[in-house]
Design goal:
Elements (H helix, E strand, L loop, with lengths): L1 H13 L39 H22 L4 E5 L2 E6 L4 E4 L6 E4 L12 H29 L7 H28 L18 E5 L1 H26 L5
Helix pairs in contact: 2-3, 2-5, 3-4, 4-5
Keywords: Membrane, Transmembrane, Transmembrane helix
Length: about 240
């Protein structure tokens, strides 16, 4: 009996041993490679006015003010006007001209050539209309890009587009300036309405600029001021060095 037990244990010891898998060593405090460093904690995007400098904040505010003035100037027909016998006898804007019939309270409004001997719209007037539309089209992307750089925490990541922002801001001031120059240079003023304005008993003014023309002057001045602030911020920052 004992021999059988010994032989059994001997045969068991002669059997091949299996290979055991040792548990892998636990990695402790081993840094993992970051596949997309753009989305780490330091570069997380958070839009806020606190991410920008004071000059860029001021430039954004100025662009909004300039845009509002430009919309009013292009939309309202009060660029120039004339007075006869202490009453406004006509007024005109980029899209429409109105005049008072026989100095009563009835106003007649229409296109530029409603009382002009030459049919069609003159070139200076068409130019102002085209510049008015272009100014509104340029203002929208200029405002969006300006807000982006004002509130984005990583402006240096978009350095190339920042120069595009400079160009758009400059154009928002250049277009209103051209409209003001062309309007004054091209408008026939007195000859626009060949009627006897002067009256010795009244202080008549055949041609005067109106509030929309003044708004247009402020629009290009404010836009150029915003452009100057952007350039100043760029030169003072590390990106301009």
């Amino acid at each position: 009996m004992a021999s059988s037990i010994v032989s059994g244990s001997s045969s068991a010891s002669n059997q091949p041993r299996g290979y055991s898998v040792q548990p892998a060593e636990k990695e402790v405090d081993k840094p993992r490679p970051t596949m997309t460093p753009f989305y780490d904690e330091d570069t997380k995007i958070s839009f806020s006015c606190q991410n920008s400098t004071l000059p860029l904040k001021l430039s954004s505010v100025l662009l909004v003010v300039s845009f509002i003035l430009q919309v009013i100037s292009v939309g309202a027909p009060y660029w120039s006007a004339g007075w006869r016998r202490d009453k406004m006898s006509w007024y005109e804007g980029v899209w429409m001209t109105c005049y008072r019939a026989d100095l009563d309270n009835k106003w007649i409004c229409g296109a530029y050539d409603y009382s002009n001997n030459k049919h069609g719209v003159p070139g200076w007037y068409t130019f102002c209309q085209a510049m008015g539309l272009i100014s509104l089209v340029v203002f929208l992307p200029a405002l969006l890009i300006n807000f982006f750089y004002t509130m984005h925490p990583k402006m240096k990541m978009f350095r190339g587009m920042r120069f595009f922002n400079f160009v758009l801001t400059f154009v928002t001031g250049l277009v209103p300036l051209l409209m003001v120059i062309v309007w004054i240079a091209g408008h026939p003023m007195k000859d626009r309405f060949p009627i006897p304005y002067r009256d010795k008993d009244y202080d008549d003014e055949p041609f005067m600029i109106h509030f929309c023309f003044v708004f247009e002057i402020f629009a290009f001045i404010i836009s150029f001021a915003a452009f100057g602030l952007e350039v100043h911020d760029y030169r003072k920052s590390d990106y301009g060095n």
